[in-house]
Write a structure and sequence with these properties.
By secondary structure, this protein is of the alpha/beta class. Helices cover 46% and strands 13% of the residues. InterPro entries: WH-like_DNA-bd_sf, WH_DNA-bd_sf.
Length: 332
């Protein structure tokens, strides 16, 4: 069991990541290759990921470098998922390169106690070897994670909306009690009963960063070293109703351009930002945001000289329940 021990200060400093954490998603996606569990939830991704890796010439690197470093086990090295990754992929990769060699050596030794570590990975404390690792991680992300980022961002936004409702009803303790199956709030502890090892982390005023993860399935995951900034990556999948087979995609319901504008507002956007993200002109974006607002899918608020568009609960629900890839023939 994993237990986080909270103080009043820790409750005040608990927060939810605003976007997918690229390095945690890389780790969890590599775990998806190592088990059939939950494969139905990633059916489209799984069908295309292996083919994309083969076409990109990455199969060997994934098999020889990534899978040995990210076993689906009770431990893999903490330096592979640094906190800096919350600021984006490149910030996380930079942190991996900057990891002290002594930390890399110690964590590889910990990994070797539960799994055989290939001899060539023993060079990872050397900067040159980690530079190669970072190149493989970047290529892997570009090939099998990046094509699905839009849906991942929608999922995180919807999860934040869901947790916000728990927080409004029950404060931070209500939020912690609503993280999903296997996670229990037992004041002053957050307990994860499915954790593979006995592990206690005393937050001691540092708070906790909750990281909703698209590729994490069922069991939440944390860092092994309790001295590192505390995080909990957990599955954003909560058995939400899935579109029935043959149900129309968002593009069919709204039209391709309008669906793109709706997705562009998932994290909040000005009209110009929505236009840029959706690849349409500002005038076209204005037309679509007006229609989406009239339909109750977004709301718009003036902030100084700009207008900020955000999803309504109805809009967020539509995105979370309509996650199929757009069909090539959809128009709008």
């Amino acid at each position: 069991m994993l237990r986080f021990h909270f103080s009043a200060e820790d409750l005040a400093r608990t927060r939810v990541a605003a976007a997918p954490h690229a390095l945690w998603e890389i780790a969890a996606s590599l775990h998806r290759f190592q088990t059939p569990a939950g494969r139905w939830a990633y059916a489209h991704w799984y069908r295309t990921a292996r083919e994309r890796l083969r076409e990109a010439g990455l199969e060997s690197a994934v098999r020889q470098i990534l899978l040995p470093l990210y076993p689906r086990a009770s431990y893999w090295p903490d330096f592979l998922t640094p906190l800096e990754g919350a600021a984006g992929l490149e910030a996380g990769l930079k942190a991996i390169l900057a990891t002290p060699p002594a930390q890399v050596t110690a964590e590889l030794a910990a990994l070797a106690r539960i799994r055989r570590v290939p001899a060539h990975l023993a060079r990872l404390p050397e900067k040159e070897s980690r530079t190669e690792l970072v190149s493989v991680l970047r290529a892997y992300h570009r090939t099998v994670i990046e094509p699905h980022e839009e849906w991942m961002h929608e999922g995180v936004h919807t999860e934040r909306v869901r947790l916000a409702r728990h927080s409004l009803d029950g404060g931070t303790e209500g939020l912690l009690g609503g993280l999903g199956p296997g996670v229990r709030w037992q004041h002053p502890r957050l307990e994860i009963g499915t954790y593979p090892t006995e592990h206690d982390i005393r937050l001691q005023g540092r708070g906790l960063l909750l990281i909703p993860s698209y590729f994490c399935w069922k069991g939440p995951v944390s860092l092994a070293d309790p001295a590192l900034p505390p995080v909990l990556a957990y599955s954003m999948h909560h058995e939400q109703p899935r579109p029935a087979a043959g149900s129309p995609s968002l593009e069919v319901l709204l039209g391709r351009a309008r669906a793109k504008v709706l997705r562009a507002t998932a994290a909040g956007a000005t009209t110009t930002e929505a236009a840029h993200r959706a690849g349409v002109t500002p005038a076209t974006a204005t037309h679509h945001t007006t229609a989406l607002r009239d339909a109750g899918l977004i709301t718009s608020h003036r902030h100084g000289n700009t207008v900020i568009h955000t999803l309504t609960l109805l809009g967020a629900t539509m995105l979370s329940r309509n996650v199929r890839e757009p069909s090539p023939g959809a128009e709008g």
